[in-house]
Amino acid sequence: MISQSSGMLGILELDEGPFECTPVAPHEGSLLNPATFGLPILTEIVEGALAERVIRGDPSLEGACVTAAHRLVERGATIIVGDCGFLIRHQDAISAAVDVPVITSSLLLIPTLLRQLAPAKKLAVLTADTRHLGEELLNVQNVRDRERLVIGGIEGGIYMRNTVARPLVRTDLDQIEHEVGECIAQLRGQHPEVAMLLFECTGFPVVSKALRRKTKLPIYDITDLCSMTVNAVLGRNPT
Fold it and tell me: Please, where are the H alpha helices in 57-172?
């Protein structure tokens, strides 16, 4: 285990409000689980950042994101990561405000992943809500690259209903795996060229391992980008 003096991961948490049930320890693979990175974790709630406001893109949250990032750095964070992929809207503002690496979303990986694939293959992006995953968040300028990108979401499912509920309701792992797995199956049926998957939602990494086994496809999520950054910043070899 890494000592606290070696570095700490600062997480910008959404303002989830009260819980319907007693909070539980983060699952294996979760961004919020210190064992995921072997690194101590600091969290700061972004004031007013309810899931529905972050997902739909409320620009008034940018100042709160920057304030929370400053607090994390003051507390010793050496890397800052966002606990919702839709925080990518504030990537530039946050990274300009602090002098540590900032990772707001796994969507930052899109250009790299597209270039890993053969020209005839496609990258599928799985999101919590396709209705608000606009072109500006994908940031793919090349027309041919955009044609190789397919988007799927689970906005009609139980997971999203629980996520925006007040009080917040936790969704069982089996339900998340089912909904994301069904979405993957639909995308692959529509686009047989899909050869790689990227999970936008930070709630999906807890089922990444299981879905890698089931789909036999490479799956990337926020924890992969975070691990790469942690290794680079702390001079660690990948495990």
Answer: 62-74, 91-97, 110-116, 135-138, 143-147, 158-163
